[in-house]
Input
Amino acid sequence: MKATDIRPGYGIKVDGKLCVATQVDHRTPGNLRAFMQIKYKEVLTGKVLEKRWSSGDEIEVFTLDKRDMEYLYSDNTGATFMDKDNFDQVTIPEDTFADSLKYLAPNASAVILFYENNPVSMELPAAVELVITECPPGVKNATATNQLKDATCETGLKTRVPAFINEGEKIKISTADGSYISRA
Output
C-alpha cells in the first residue's frame, strides 16, 4: 500500500516488526518533495516511534481484527475480557497492554486488536471516568489558583488533580497522558 493511503489504526510492518499506525501527517515543506510522517506503536514492545516515508513508498500492511470487549477483572493469570458479540471470555497477559489497564475499571469497554487470533494491542477511548480512592483532603475556596495534588484512582492510576477534588469523587482522565480533565 502506498504511504499516502495509510490511516491511523492500520497495521503496518516497519523493519520486519508488527506496528499500529497512531498518527499520520502528509507534509509538503516549501519547495521540497512531499512526505508522510507516520507515528506508530510497536505491537510487541509498546514503543512509540516516528518515521518518514516519501509519498510514493510502498508500506507492507497487515489486517488487524478489532473486537469490542468488556474488561471484567485481573488476577495473576492476566486480564480477563469478554467479547460483547459472542460473550466468549479471553484471558490476556497483562504485559501485552503495558500501562493501558490502569485506565480501565471493571466493566469498562475497550477495543482489543488481534493479529492471527492473538491479542496484540488495545485502543482506549479518549477519556475515562475513574473514582478517586486516595488523596489529601480538599481545600475550600481553592479555585482561584492552579494548585495540583497527587491522587490515586480505583485502578491504581496515579494522577494530579486540583486542590478542591476529594476522595470518592468521580473524575474524567485523558488516556493520552493520564492528566485530569474535569469532574465526571
Remarks:
- DSSP finds no helices and 15 strands in the chain.
- The chain has a mean pLDDT of 85.
- The two ends are 42 Å apart (CA to CA).
- The first strand starts at residue 11 and ends at 14.
